[in-house]
From TrEMBL:
<dbReference type="GO" id="GO:0103023">
    <property type="term" value="F:ITPase activity"/>
</dbReference>
<comment type="function">
    <text>Phosphatase that hydrolyzes non-canonical purine nucleotides such as XTP and ITP to their respective diphosphate derivatives. Probably excludes non-canonical purines from DNA/RNA precursor pool, thus preventing their incorporation into DNA/RNA and avoiding chromosomal lesions.</text>
</comment>
<dbReference type="GO" id="GO:0046872">
    <property type="term" value="F:metal ion binding"/>
</dbReference>
<dbReference type="Pfam" id="PF01931">
    <property type="entry name" value="NTPase_I-T"/>
</dbReference>
<keyword id="KW-0378">Hydrolase</keyword>
<keyword id="KW-0547">Nucleotide-binding</keyword>
<dbReference type="InterPro" id="IPR002786">
    <property type="entry name" value="Non_canon_purine_NTPase"/>
</dbReference>
<dbReference type="InterPro" id="IPR029001">
    <property type="entry name" value="ITPase-like_fam"/>
</dbReference>
<keyword id="KW-0460">Magnesium</keyword>
<feature type="binding site">
    <location>
        <position position="72"/>
    </location>
    <ligand>
        <name>Mg(2+)</name>
    </ligand>
</feature>
<dbReference type="InterPro" id="IPR050299">
    <property type="entry name" value="YjjX_NTPase"/>
</dbReference>
<dbReference type="GO" id="GO:0009117">
    <property type="term" value="P:nucleotide metabolic process"/>
</dbReference>
<protein>
    <recommendedName>
        <fullName>Inosine/xanthosine triphosphatase</fullName>
        <ecNumber>3.6.1.73</ecNumber>
    </recommendedName>
</protein>
<feature type="domain" description="Non-canonical purine NTP phosphatase/PRRC1">
    <location>
        <begin position="12"/>
        <end position="174"/>
    </location>
</feature>
<dbReference type="GO" id="GO:0000166">
    <property type="term" value="F:nucleotide binding"/>
</dbReference>
<dbReference type="GO" id="GO:0006772">
    <property type="term" value="P:thiamine metabolic process"/>
</dbReference>
<comment type="similarity">
    <text>Belongs to the YjjX NTPase family.</text>
</comment>
Amino acid sequence: MAQSKTLTVLVGSKNPVKVNAAKLVIQGYFPDYQVQCSGLHAPSGVPEQPLGEDETRLGAQNRVSYLQQHHQADFYCAMEGGAHQFSYGPATFAYVVIANDQYTSVNRSSNLPLPQAIYDALVAGEELGPVMDRVFNTTNIKQKGGAIGLLTNHVATRESTYTQALTLAMAPFLHPHLYMQQAIQDEV
């Protein structure tokens, strides 16, 4: 029997939605490997409910950096959900970071428009998951379909949004010569 190749993936969260999204994406790109994906606590260094793109991105980057400093893996992933009051209205989104020993890729999900009253609750210090649980009379929605599932009648989910952002973030790992070439051109 042939020995199977294994990839280890660490996710900076124990949330099953985030772990499942990372495993699905990595397994899709490496079908000949057995993917061992684990969620671990990794501090974000930002508030429980990040507001603004910079704070949200920093949370994901901090989680990946923590994993890299304390653990060994083939890939490190983190997803951080945030919200922002854009000129066209409030929205929630996520930043994702994937890294290995050579590259770090940062990407952002699409926006989900939020009702103003829900965004105002976030500004007042609440976290999106509990606010959505209260508004929709659900329990622990952040470990299920999330606000995305509730507000799209489950046509999209929190996991599907993470999956798309992670899928696109994999580009530098699939074509490193192209991304390395750009870095070399930038230095000239």
